[in-house]
Amino acid sequence: MATGTGTKDDPWKLQTPSLTSEYEMYRDESADPPAIICQVGSTQLRYHARAIEDLHAWLKEQGDWVPLGSADEQKPAAAGTVEAWGRSESNPVGGWYGIRKGYRGRFGMYLPPLLEALGLAEVEHNPRNNRMRAI
Known about the structure:
Layout: E1 12-15, E2 22-28, E3 35-40, E4 43-48, H1 51-62, E5 66-67, H2 82-85, H3 107-117, E6 121-123, E7 131-134
Antiparallel strand pairs: 1-2, 2-3, 3-4, 5-7, 6-7
C-alpha cells in the first residue's frame, strides 16, 4: 500500500482507487490554512489538512459504504458521494476542501487512498465506481 511518513521530504506514495495511477501527498502545517499537498505528475492539488479527520467522521456517520464519485472542479458531483460531500456547504469547512481554485475537485479520487493508508477507511479497488467506508 502506501509508503512514507507524510512529510515533504518523505511523502505518502499512494495509488488511485482503481490502482492505475501513482501520486504523492504530504502535510504542510505551515500553510494557511494547514494543507495536504497532492502531487500528481506536474499537477499540484491542495486540500484542507482537516479533511482527513472530517472525512473519517462523516464516513462513520454514514455507517456503510459510500460511492467516491470523483469529478473535476468544473463538473458536478453526484449526490451522496464523497466528492459531493467534499464540496458541500453543509460540510465542516462550509464548501470546498480543495484550496487551489481550478484544482479543487478530485477529492473523491485522492483522499480515500490516504485514509486507507492511515488505517481509517476501507476503499474498493475496482476499475470504476469504487466506494469507501470508515473503519
